[in-house]
Amino acid sequence: MTVLGVIADDFTGATDVASMLVRAGMRTVQVIGVPDGPPVQADAVVVALKSRTTPAHQAVAESLAALRWLQAAGARQFYFKYCSTFDSTPAGNIGPVAEALLEALGADFTIACPAFPENGRTVFRGHLFVGDELLSDSGMRHHPLTPMNDANLLRVLQAQSRGRVGLVRHDTVKQGVPAVQARFACLRAEGVRLAVADAIDNDDLRTLAVACADLPLITAGSGLALGLPAVYEARGWIRPDAQAAALQAVGGAAAVLAGSCSAATRAQVQHWIASGRPALRLDARELAQGRPLAAEALAWARAHLPEAPVLIYATARPEEVQAIQAEFGAERAGALVEACLAAIAQGLIASGVRRLVVAGGETSGAVVQALGVRQLRIGAAIDPGVPWTQVEHRPLLLALKSGNFGSTDFFSKALEQVS
């Protein structure tokens, strides 16, 4: 019986939250899009949508469809997972989706907590920090699709929501579960539907997980999922499995595709190049002008793959991205790069690549869809929030990395883990 049903608004975010559950012994499966088949047998099932940057009405419709499928699978609790940097379209998908899920479940209250301290995302007095910087001062202010210029989550979420937004402050969280639940009751009495919850470490997340045990819906980044398996074990709903993260070994070649332009991915690309490994850059301007970069990249990769893993990247500095967007339009430029990297992924798999790292949420979504992947088993984490996954019924391992995640040596470390 499925205990937890997760609705994730992008593919890397889905593997992120699944990794947290597997780490605590929950058998977890990720499905791509809303399945049309029977329920999946696992303790937790994560439905990965590509709804973060779609129009709000479309994101709501897809999320409600995922909810209905998870309800049919027998899930006892539901979790709407968004990015730990709370990014969304300017119109806002987080508020509309959260409120639609509440209404569908007949619930009147939940929390919003994107905190993921292990990756430097913390929430204090309702403000989101990335490391030592406010979200609005971080590299997220330059994100090509979802620039975040306000670190005040109450203000961001209220602008997206019909109902009232409140706050569970850190001093309340530190007092423990009874204090948090008492605060929930006060906020409910005041008519608050969504409450931003502070959290600066894993102990805070565990406290919130216990406090939310009876809520039909939780909305959060992946961090809060860390505390849920212990709640379910205490209730007798699951028995932790020490082999939950075990994946089969595969042979074949290895490659990395990078579409993200985040600071973390730029550093990872530079580290790969500095170490003398083969790398090829895709020029988005040349792609927009019609040059067949996918075919050229595949020819280059096939010449190198017998000897070593390769990196093919479209990663660029913020000013380069802005110039290309100004020339060709943000949507068209992004779609061209995603389509090119997806075509390259198909060619790499046809050429014998069996271990593929993909950097960037939108890029990961495009690649997974191009490869026809419908279901993933979740393996061990490479870095916090980024696990290896195995495509069901195929000898193919994928690491789908959020652009902002991972250490500087992430690419080489990921491939060494499954060498």
Folded structure, characterized:
By secondary structure, the chain is of the alpha/beta class. The chain has 2 domains: 4-234, Rossmann fold; 253-417, Four-carbon acid sugar kinase, nucleotide binding domain (Molybdenum Cofactor Biosythetic Enzyme, Chain A). 39% of the residues lie in helices and 21% in strands. It has 15 helices and 18 strands. It has helices spanning 11-23, 56-72, 94-105, 153-160, 170-173, 177-189, 202-211, 228-234, 263-274, 284-288, 293-304, 318-328, 330-350, 361-370, 410-417; strands spanning 4-8, 28-32, 44-48, 77-81, 110-113, 121-124, 127-130, 133-134, 164-168, 192-197, 217-220, 253-258, 279-281, 310-313, 353-359, 375-383, 386-391, 397-401. It has a 15-stranded mixed β-sheet with strand order 9-10-5-11-4-1-3-2-16-17-18-15-12-14-13, sandwiched between helices. A hairpin with a 5-residue loop joins strand 17 (386-391) and strand 18. Helix 2 (56-72) runs parallel beside helix 3 (94-105), helix 6 packs across helix 7 and helix 12 crosses helix 13 (330-350). The longest helix is centred in the C-terminal third of the chain and has 21 residues, at 330-350. It is globular. The protein starts with a strand and ends with a helix.
What's the quick description here?
The protein is built from 15 helices and 18 strands. It is of the alpha/beta class and 419 residues long.
